[in-house]
Write a structure and sequence with these properties.
Blueprint: E1 8-12, H1 16-25, E2 32-36, H2 42-49, H3 63-68, E3 72-75, H4 78-82, E4 87-90, H5 96-109, E5 115-118, H6 125-128, E6 138-143, E7 152-157, H7 163-176, E8 181-184, H8 194-210, H9 216-243, H10 248-266, H11 278-291, H12 300-315
Parallel strand pairs: 1-2, 1-4, 2-3, 4-5, 5-6, 7-8
Antiparallel strand pairs: 6-7
Length: 317
């Protein structure tokens, strides 16, 4: 993205991820955000929720002023939202039956030079482009919730995606928000990388709770009191590399080989799709009993703490 380049960003779908992405794109003071969502109360939704996603220094800027100045434009048709777009980013349902025809439609109404991004958590670009004429324009930009705070953006091209599209996406986010960290995933794989790691931990967490080894509350406490802080500062490999002393990661594996292998051999298999769903209801009930009903507003109190963790992380040599 050139220093004097401005963008018309069309956001398709404005749920929890979409509204946070709107706040992220608004950090570029020259951009215009075009919003299209089928919900009838989209304007009220923006007025109610967008202020809480804006950067602290920008919260004095009202949604009304962003709309009146033309920084935000709300559209009632996909065609008008995309007609001037330099970037089209969709945050629709995690459903290939929705995404595949949507991108074919967007391709017809957006300028031929527009960049196409999907915020999917797991549907690869190669599947989404099946009905498109030019498959080289689309890639996945997978944010982590809340994306206006969490630095990671997984940039996941298909084998057909142009390398220039990958380079542009990385350059764009580094300039719009220097603290964000776009990482290119080299191959399409189910769940990409972040979710594969997270869901592997989730699978084992559900197994341990269902087997009565630990409660939901205590498992979360174990994560927050050990692995969470450690991995926030060093990641998986760097942390275990340090744990191996002078011999590094090799030394770690040598010292704990027997224990590591025993755990790997003992890892419980737990299925989301088999007929025995007792574990699912058991774990879900314990989570709901422990933490109560979840809501969008409930997460706001965590944002300041999350920002502080990231501040400490970035200041640690």
């Amino acid at each position: 993205m050139a220093a004097n380049e401005t963008h018309q960003v069309a956001l398709i779908g404005l749920g929890t991820i979409g509204i946070a992405m709107a706040a992220l794109h608004l950090r570029d003071p020259t951009s215009t955000i075009h919003i299209f969502d089928v919900r009838a109360d989209i304007e009220q939704f923006i007025f109610a929720h967008l202020p809480g996603f804006l950067e602290p220094v920008s919260r004095g800027t009202s949604v009304a002023s962003l709309i009146s100045s033309g920084r935000i434009k709300i559209h009632t048709a996909l065609e008008t939202a995309c007609s001037l777009a330099t970037i089209v980013q969709e945050q629709g349902p995690e459903n290939i039956a929705f995404k595949k025809p949507l991108w074919a439609q967007i391709e017809k109404v957006a300028p031929p030079t527009a960049h196409f991004w999907s915020s999917t958590s797991g549907i690869p670009a190669s599947e989404q482009t099946a009905a498109m004429q030019n498959k080289s324009r689309l890639l996945v930009v997978h944010p982590f919730n809340p994306p206006h705070i969490m630095p990671l953006l997984e940039i996941v091209p298909s084998s057909s995606t142009s390398s220039s599209e990958v380079e542009f996406a990385c350059r764009y986010f580094r300039q719009v928000s220097p603290r964000h960290c776009p990482v290119v995933i080299k191959k399409e794989v189910s769940g990409f990388v972040g979710n594969r790691l997270a869901f592997a931990v989730l699978r084992e967490a559900c197994y341990l709770v269902e087997q009565g080894v630990v409660s939901v509350k205590d498992l979360d406490q174990i994560m927050m009191s050990s692995l969470g802080p450690r991995w926030a500062l060093g990641g998986v490999f760097e942390s275990y590399h340090a744990g191996g002393g002078e011999d590094g990661f090799r030394g770690f594996l040598n010292k704990l080989e027997a224990t590591v292998q025993e755990v790997w051999d003992d890892l419980g298999l737990i299925s989301m799709t088999n007929d025995n769903q007792r574990w699912r209801e058991y774990v879900t009930a314990q989570v709901e009993e422990t933490y109560g009903q979840s809501s969008l507003g409930q997460t706001n109190g965590k944002k300041a703490k999350l920002r502080e963790v990231l501040r400490i992380q970035s200041s640690t040599p």
